[in-house]
From TrEMBL:
A Pfam family the protein falls into: CHMI
GO molecular function, one term: isomerase activity
The name this protein goes by in its record: Isomerase
Key words of the record: Isomerase
Classification via InterPro entries: 5-COMe_2-OHmuconate_Isoase, Tautomerase/MIF_sf
Keyword check for Ligase: no
Length: 122
């Protein structure tokens, strides 16, 4: 915990548009600060995928999506989750380069992990 997933459009290139390393570091620091997680508990998986927007052809590439999901153990207030969401949106503004002709759609969901959540480490 926390379990973090970043889904993003293939349109966003790791080297040019999306500062993955910088974003992950800043994201983990933010989660530790706001949600009282420990640094070693923060785990983020980046998943690239094709995105469709409205009725446009997928090849149009004038829109890109980034969605961050943060799963936390229960106990955080709604205010804490909202503050974390706003902070992550600000991090996306800082770590995703603005490109001419590209509309970025960024979103964040902070949710509680289901009580059935379990994990192990080796």
């Amino acid at each position: 915990m926390p379990q973090i997933t970043v889904d993003y459009s293939t349109r966003l290139d790791f080297s040019d548009s999306l500062d993955v390393q910088g974003f992950a570091r800043a994201l983990h620091e933010t989660v530790v600060e706001i949600a009282a997680a420990t640094p070693e508990a923060c785990k983020t998986q980046f998943r690239e995928g094709y995105s469709a927007y409205g009725y446009e052809d997928m090849e149009d590439a004038s829109h890109a999506l980034v969605h961050v999901t943060i799963g936390l153990l229960s106990g955080r207030s709604e205010e804490t989750k909202a503050k974390l969401s706003e902070a992550v949106l600000e991090l996306l503004r800082e770590h995703v380069a603005q490109e001419d002709g590209l509309t970025l759609h960024a979103s964040v969901e902070v949710r509680e992990l289901d009580p059935s959540y379990r994990k192990f480490e080796r």
